[in-house]
Amino acid sequence: MTARNNSFDEQVVLHELKQFLPALVPGRTFTHRNPLQAFQHLAFHDALRQASGMLGYHTSLSLEEYRSLYNSKRVKPGVLEKVLVEKKGAANTFEWQDKVLMKKFPAQTCAAARIGQLRAHWQKQYKTDPDARVHPRLLRILGNYLDHGIADWKFPVRGQGFLDSMREVESNSFVSAFNTPRARNLLLHTSPSISDLLAVIVGDETLFKQYLFDQQFAHRGWSGLVATLESGGKNLPNGSHITLRELIVFELLMEIDVLDDRLGEHWEPLASRLAELPDDLFAPVPMDEKSEVLAIWQEAVEWSYYEGILAGLFHNPENSPGKTGGQSSEVILTNAPDSLCIVGRPPVFRNLPAGHRAFLNGYEFSLDPEGEVLEKILETVVPSLGAANLEYYFSRTSQAGADVGHALTDQIIGLFGMTGSARGDLRTGLPTELTQDLEPMRLLCVVEQFPETVMQVIRRLNASRSWLVNEWVHLVTVDPVSRELRILKKGKMVTYRRLPAVKSLEDAAH
Hints:
2 domains, two-stranded antiparallel ribbon, 6-stranded mixed beta sheet
């Protein structure tokens, strides 16, 4: 077996792990953060592919759902043609039309994801599953410790950190959380580091980081809750506090206890029996044909909706009313909350097609020649609305599999006695009853300002820049004078042409 040349830095890995875990907060508020924040440095569709291949997240609708939307005319044939031509070129349109509409692909499964592959070797090599024995005890203890005053049984120690509290409980209780002496003695008489414990359990330092990701994503709801509480810097109602590091140390001790109980004290670390290394959890997930097809479908769904909105807001005098390039521009109604934002003068708002809701931000371009006011608006609006929008987006796509999103307060009640799965993890994402009829749709932000000014603003942005440049939020500008529409694509403003003048794929190919 060839070892990877990595070194393990506990603080760096903990910081990175917190970026990947879902942000869960007890309380009646949302957390305004991109559910896939750790992937936001990537272009949107690249990020979806990486999150799916790495963590098993379902980040799109199924092919069957997309094709059903096309068959029901929810996806406009003209828009699908346009997307195919833009992404694959006119000469390749017929080939890709067949792949998009007809080709069968293997079903995507969470089992194919990289997460969990390393720790799966406990079952393969030792015929044991530490999670099955650790989780019931660990999450029961954790739930009681994090209690906000609802649990019947109160945690006996108050006002201390998690590990110090557990030491006091172990020292003064007739019942132990452990079944064997080694792990209990490590807790009571030493201050083991994560590296120390991973050396016992894993052995190979180059695999430590991947092992921790596997471990914490086996209950990512609880881990995300602990990480969010730590980041907030506030104590629990009983005066206690907890860090992600403490949770990991205690869980590693419980794993040692389970393995000692199951295998005796002389078992070998996990890496010693690996015939080959698992797939690198963090390596880029290569693009394949299915991921390209899914990206095409998502663009077609979104722009079938946006097409009618933009036609209603900003009529192009070159086209007759109700027509764009020979294609119907009727407005499609869709159930996609927080999917439209308009920054401009009141007349723009009044042209919003009936039946649609939008976040409206009054803005007078003529009073802001350098875009300083617009910069402040975008820095505020884009991250907050974008995060709320993606909450719905990924809660809808995740219904078929692994959750991506955050959670509502009602779901966090799980840490007081109810949990969301057979494994006992908290449920992430919005409740199914709120999202089952939604269509996943990125936020469209329409700005009335000269495109050159908007580009200058984008270059100055901080928090909002990656949202726009990587297309987590669509940005369309309307020229205040010419009324020409531009869309931000791959970091550049390009002229937006609604539907192509061609009426068929045969014409497009020529």
